[in-house]
Design a protein that fits this description.
By secondary structure, this protein is of the alpha/beta class. The chain folds into four domains: 50-61 and 69-243, Dna Ligase, domain 1, CATH 3.30.1490.20; 254-355, D-amino Acid Aminotransferase, Chain A, domain 1 (2-Layer Sandwich), CATH 3.30.470.20; 393-525, Phosphohistidine domain (Glucose Oxidase, domain 1, 3-Layer(bba) Sandwich); 531-881, TIM Barrel. It has an eight-stranded mixed sheet with strand order 12-22-21-14-15-16-17-13. Strand 24, helix 19 and strand 25 form a beta-alpha-beta unit. Helix 4 runs antiparallel to helix 5 (129-146), helix 6 runs antiparallel to helix 7 (176-194) and helix 19 runs parallel beside helix 22. The longest helix has 26 residues, at 596-621. It is elongated. The two termini are 37 Å apart. The chain binds adenosine-5'-diphosphate (ADP) and magnesium ion (2 copies). The site of one magnesium ion has 4 residues, from loops.
Length: 882
C-alpha cells in the first residue's frame, strides 16, 4: 500500500483530485508541481496513514516509516542536501493538511532538522549566521509548542525581555549573538519546565513531528472547528514534509500571502500582504504590520510601506504570472502562500480562497462574464447558507455615531454589543442572551468558539490576512482588525482609546465594511441588494424547479420576503394576530365564554381585526398565493398571566377572580403539544374557524373589488384522520360561499391541510381526497415521528449528534430516512388520489439547503421559509436542480 506520495518538479505522484487521500494542501502542492511552478520538493503522508496511526494506538507503522525514509532519500537527491547532515543540512517543514481547509487549526513546524551542530553548518554554508540562529530559535519555539506541547509563552516572554533589553521593536533587529543566546536560554527553560531535553536527532524530530500532526487532528480546537463547519471527524489529516526555503535570510527575502481577487469585495484585483526578512506565519500572526504587495493592497495602516512591486519587481512580476496561471487552472479565486529566498519566488500553497458572501457572488458573476465558468458552475460555487451575510442589516448612515477609532475593514457588516475580552467571556455572555463584541489583541484558533458567539470581532493587531480577518470573513461576521489605537489590558479588563477607558459590559459598534469603531449601539438598516446579487438570483430562478414562498404573518414581513423574491406565503400563522395588544382581551373573552352566544359575541369583536390583517397581507402579496393556517395552538396559551391581566378580564366579563383562576386550571393540559389544539379546536368549537374563514373570504372580496388578484389557501392544521378534514373543509366551504353570496362576488380559493402527524402522512392517499394541497409542517412532523419534544430535546439531542446517532439535528435538517420517508409516501399516495393537488413545506426546514435538496428530490412544488432565508432557498433550490 502506498502511504507516501512524492511531489517535485521532476516526479509527482498526486494531483488536485486526490484531496481525500493527500489532504487539500498535499493535493494542491502536487498539482502545482505538475504545473511546473517553483514548489520546494517534498512528500505527503496520506490521511490513511493518520487513520492507521489512530487505530494502531498511536504508532506509525513500519511500512509508513520505510516509505518515508525512501522519500527522504529522493528529496535529498533533488535538493543536493542531506537530512541530518551537519555541513549541508536538508531542513523540512512539517505541515498538516486535511481534506477541507481548516486554516490555523493545525500547526506547522518549520526548519526541522536543526540542532547545535547543523546550525553551524547552515551558518557557514549560507555565510549568514544571523539567519541560521533565527531559523533555529524559530524551530525550537514551534517544535516545543506543537510537538512537545510546551507552553511557549515563557519563551515568547524571554524574547520580549531581550528585545526590550536591546531597545529594539522588531524580531529582525536582534543580532546573531542575541538569537544564539535565545537558543541556549530556550533549551534551558524547556528542560527545566518540562524535564525533557530538546531532541537533537533530526530523525527523531521528524517522527515525533509527524505523530504530532496526526495527534493535532484530535486537538480540541480542531474538533470544535469541525463541529462548527460540519466536517466529519473520521477524515484524518495528511502530513506534508517539505524541504525548506527561507524568507528570513535577509532583505532579499520575504514571505507573504495573496489573493487573486479582493476577498472582501470580490473585485478582480490582485491583493496581498508580505513581510521582508520573515518566515512562516509572521504575516498572519500580527507580529509586525504586514506590507502591501501592490498599491491596491494599501490601507490606512500600511500605506507608507514599500510594496512588493516596488521592493522586488522581478519576484512580483513572477508572482503575477503565477497567480493568473493558478486562477485560470482552478477556475476560482485562489489564496496563495509564497516565500522569496534571495529574490527567487517559491509557491508554498494554493487553495480556493475564503471570501465574504458579497465577494463570492461578485467573483462567480465575473467568472461567468469572463467566460471561465458556466452559469450552472457559478451557482454551485456559492454556499447558499453564506447569503445570510448579505441579507442582514448594516449601520444606518443617518444615525449619529461617535467614532472612537478606525481599524482595517476586515470583514463587512455591522455588529453591536457589549465588550468581552476573552473567548470564554464572550461565550458566557452570549449564553446569557447578551450581544457581544469580542475585543482581542489578536485572535488565535483558540478563539473560534468566542468568535461564533459574538456579533463582531475587533482586534488591535493583525492585517487583512490575519487570523481574525480570515475566520470572520468565513463566518460572515463583521470584523475590524489591526486597530492600533486600542490599548487593551487583559489583566485590568479594560480597553483604552485616546485616554478614555471602556470595560467589559460597555457597548461598542463596529462596521467591518469601513473599519469604524463606534461608542454605544448604533441603529442598523436593511441590506442593499447589488446588481451582481440580482443577476445571481435571476440565474438561480432560471434553473430551480421548486417554488419559494415565505412564512410571514404580517404585511411588513411579507413585503421583505417579496423583495427577496418570495412567490407567495406558504404559512401565515393566524394566532400571532390573536396576541396583539388590542385584541387579546377579546380572545380571552372568547376562551372564557360559557355559552355559544357569548363566544360568538367575542369572536365578532375579533373578526374585523382578522379581516384587516388579511387585507393587509393580500395587498402586500398582490396576486401571489397566500396560505393561511387556521388557529393552531392550545387555547391556554392565550390565558392571562399577571394579576393585572386577570383582573382586566374578570371586569370585562363580570366574573370574579376565583372563576378566572378556575377556568384557567380547567384549560391546563398535561401535554399541550399533543392536546386540544389544531383542528381539534375546529371540531369542538366550529365557530372559531368559521370566524377566521369569514374574515379571509371578506378580505378576499374587499381586495378583489379594489382590483387586486387574491389567491387565498385555507389550511387546516394537525389533521390525523380523514373525518376531521371532511367536516372542517365542508364547514369552511359553506362559510366562504355564504360570504360570497352575501357580497355578490366570487374569488378563487383552495382548502387543504397541513401534514404534521405521522398518521396523516401514512393515510395521505385518503386524506388527499379532501385536500387541494398538502403542506408539510415538518417541525411537528419531526417531533411526532421521533416522539421528541422540541422544547425538551436540548438536554439530550446534542449528545445524539455528538455520538452520531443522528447525522444532524433533525430539527435543523430533515431526517430524510424517517420523516422524509413519511413525506415521500404522502406525496406519492396523495398524487395518486388527487393528481391536481400541490405540495409544499412550511416547517423551519424549508429554508435549510440540505432539506431543500430533499424537497426537490421528492417532487414538492414549493418550499416556504422565513423572509430573510428566501434568497438562500432560491439558490439551494437551483443547486438541487443542477
Ligand atoms: P497552515 O495550514 O496554517 O496554512 P502551512 O502548512 O501552510 O500552515 O504553513 C504555514 C506557513 O509556513 C506557510 O504559509 C509558509 O509561510 C511556511 N512554510 C511552510 N512550509 C514551508 C517551506 N517548505 N518553506 C518555507 N516556508 C514554509
Ligand atoms: Mg498554521
Ligand atoms: Mg498555509
Amino acid at each position: 500500500k502506498q502511504w507516501v506520495y512524492l511531489f517535485s518538479a521532476e516526479k509527482t505522484e498526486g494531483n488536485k483530485d486526490m484531496k481525500d487521500l493527500l489532504g487539500g494542501k498535499g493535493a494542491n502542492l502536487a498539482e502545482m508541481c505538475s504545473l511546473k511552478l517553483a514548489v520546494p520538493p517534498g512528500f505527503t503522508v496520506t490521511t490513511e496513514a493518520c487513520l492507521d496511526y489512530e487505530k494502531n494506538e498511536k504508532a506509525i507503522n513500519q511500512d509508513v516509516k520505510a516509505q518515508v525514509l525512501k522519500a527522504i532519500a529522493e528529496v535529498e537527491k533533488l535538493t543536493g542536501k542531506k537530512f541530518g547532515d551537519n555541513a549541508n543540512p536538508l531542513l523540512f517543514s512539517v505541515r498538516s493538511g486535511a481534506r477541507a481547509s481548516m486554516p490555523g487549526m493545525m500547526d506547522t513546524v518549520l526548519n526541522l532538522g536543526l540542532n547545535d551542530q547543523s546550525v553551524l553548518g547552515l551558518a557557514k554554508l549560507t555565510n549568514n549566521e544571523r539567519f541560521a540562529w533565527d531559523s533555529y530559535r524559530r524551530f525550537i519555539q514551534m517544535y516545543a509548542n506543537v510537538v512537545m506541547d510546551f507552553n511557549i509563552s515563557l519563551l515568547e516572554a524571554t524574547m520580549e525581555d531581550l528585545k526590550e533589553a536591546r531597545g529594539v521593536h522588531d524580531d529582525t533587529q536582534l543580532s546573531a549573538g542575541d538569537l544564539k543566546e535565545l537558543v541556549t536560554v530556550f533549551k534551558k527553560i524547556i528542560l527545566e519546565e518540562s524535564g525533557e531535553s530538546f531532541p537533537t536527532d533530526p530523525m527523531e524530530q521528524l517522527w515525533l513531528a509527524i505523530a504530532a500532526v496526526f495527534n493535532s487532528w484530535g486537538n480540541p480546537r480542531a474538533v470544535k472547528y469541525r463541529e462548527i463547519y460540519d466536517i466529519p471527524h473520521t477524515w484524518g489529516t495528511a502530513v506534508n514534509v517539505q524541504s525548506m526555503v527561507f524568507g528570513n535570510m535577509g532583505d532579499d527575502c520575504a514571505t507573504g500571502v495573496c489573493f487573486t481577487r479582493d476577498p472582501s469585495t470580490g473585485e478582480a484585483k490582485f491583493f496581498g500582504e508580505y513581510l521582508i526578512n520573515a518566515q512562516g506565519e509572521d504575516v498572519v500572526a500580527g507580529i509586525r504590520t504586514p506590507q502591501p504587495i501592490n498599491n491596491f493592497s494599501k490601507n490606512d495602516s500600511n500605506k507608507n510601506f514599500k510594496t512588493l512591486e516596488e521592493a522586488m519587481p522581478k519576484a512580483f512580476a513572477e508572482l503575477t504570472e503565477v497567480y493568473k496561471k493558478l486562477e485560470g487552472h482552478y477556475k476560482d479565486m485562489q489564496d496563495i502562500e509564497f516565500t522569496i529566498e534571495n529574490k527567487k519566488l517559491y509557491i508554498l500553497q494554493t487553495r480556493n480562497g475564503k471570501r465574504t458572501a458579497a465577494a463570492g457572488i461578485k467573483i462567480a458573476v465575473d467568472l461567468v462574464s469572463e467566460g471561465i465558468l458556466t452559469k450552472q458552475e457559478a451557482l454551485l460555487r456559492v454556499n447558499a447558507e453564506d447569503l445570510n451575510q448579505l441579507l442582514h442589516p448594516r449601520l444606518d448612515p443617518k444615525a449619529t455615531k461617535k467614532m472612537i477609532a478606525k481599524g482595517l475593514p476586515a470583514s463587512p457588516g455591522a455588529g453591536a454589543g457589549i465588550i468581552a475580552f476573552s473567548s470564554e467571556r464572550a461565550h458566557t455572555l452570549a449564553e446569557e442572551g447578551k450581544k457581544v463584541i469580542l475585543v482581542r489583541q489578536e485572535t488565535s484558533p483558540e478563539d473560534i468558539a468566542g468568535m461564533v458567539a459574538s456579533q463582531g470581532i475587533l482586534t488591535a493587531r493583525g492585517g487583512m490576512t490575519s487570523h481574525a480577518a480570515v475566520v470572520a470573513r468565513g463566518m460572515g461576521k463583521p470584523c475590524v482588525a489591526g486597530c492600533s489605537a486600542l490599548m487593551i489590558d487583559y489583566a485590568a479588563g479594560t480597553l483604552t482609546v485616546d485616554g478614555k477607558r471602556y470595560k467589559e459590559g460597555d457597548s461598542l459598534t463596529i462596521d467591518g465594511g469601513t473599519g469604524e469603531v463606534i461608542e454605544g449601539i448604533v441603529p442598523t438598516i436593511d441590506a442593499a441588494i447589488t446588481a451582481d446579487f440580482a443577476t445571481f438570483m435571476q440565474w438561480s430562478d432560471e434553473f430551480r424547479k421548486l417554488g419559494v414562498r415565505t412564512n410571514a404573518d404580517t404585511p411588513e414581513d411579507s413585503k421583505v420576503a417579496v423583495k427577496f423574491g418570495a412567490e407567495g406565503i406558504g404559512l401565515c400563522r393566524t394566532e400571532h394576530m390573536f396576541f396583539e395588544k388590542d385584541r387579546i382581551l377579546a380572545v380571552r373573552e372568547m376562551i372564557f365564554a360559557n355559552t355559544l352566544e357569548d363566544r360568538k359575541k367575542a369572536l365578532a369583536k375579533i373578526l374585523p381585526f382578522q379581516r384587516e390583517d388579511f387585507v393587509g397581507i393580500f395587498s402586500a402579496l398582490n396576486g401571489l398565493p397566500v396560505n393561511i393556517r387556521l388557529l393552531d395552538p392550545p387555547l391556554h396559551e392565550f390565558l392571562p398571566h399577571t394579576n393585572e391581566e386577570k383582573k382586566e378580564l374578570a371586569d370585562s366579563l363580570g366574573l370574579d377572580m376565583k372563576t378566572i383562576e378556575h377556568r384557567g386550571e380547567q384549560l391546563h393540559e398535561f401535554n399541550p403539544m399533543l392536546g386540544h389544539r389544531g383542528c381539534r379546536l375546529g371540531i369542538t368549537f366550529p365557530e372559531i374557524y368559521r370566524m377566521q374563514v369569514q374574515a379571509i373570504a371578506e378580505a378576499a372580496v374587499i381586495c378583489t373589488e379594489k382590483g387586486m388578484t387574491v389567491l387565498p389557501e385555507i389550511m387546516i392544521p394537525l389533521v390525523a384522520v380523514e373525518g376531521e378534514l371532511t367536516i372542517l373543509k365542508e364547514d369552511a366551504i359553506a362559510e366562504v360561499e355564504r360570504v360570497f353570496k352575501e357580497k355578490g362576488k366570487k374569488v378563487k380559493y383552495k382548502v387543504g391541510t397541513m401534514i404534521e402527524l405521522p398518521r396523516a402522512a401514512i393515510m395521505g392517499g385518503q386524506i388527499a381526497k379532501h385536500a387541494e394541497f398538502f403542506s408539510f409542517g415538518t417541525n411537528d412532523l419531526t417531533q411526532t415521528t421521533f416522539g421528541l419534544s422540541r422544547d425538551d430535546a436540548g438536554k439530550f439531542l446534542p449528545e445524539y449528534v455528538n455520538k452520531t446517532l443522528v447525522p444532524t439535528d433533525p430539527f435543523v435538517s430533515i431526517d430524510q430516512d424517517g420523516v422524509g420517508f413519511l413525506m415521500k409516501h404522502a406525496v406519492t399516495e396523495g398524487r395518486k388520489t388527487n393528481p391536481d393537488m400541490h405540495f409544499g413545506i412550511c416547517g423551519e426546514h424549508g429554508g435549510e439547503p440540505k432539506s431543500i435538496e430533499f424537497c426537490h428530490k421528492i417532487g414538492l412544488d414549493y418550499v416556504s421559509c422565513s423572509p430573510y432565508r428566501v434568497p438562500i432557498a432560491r439558490l439551494a433550490a437551483a443547486q438541487a436542480a443542477i
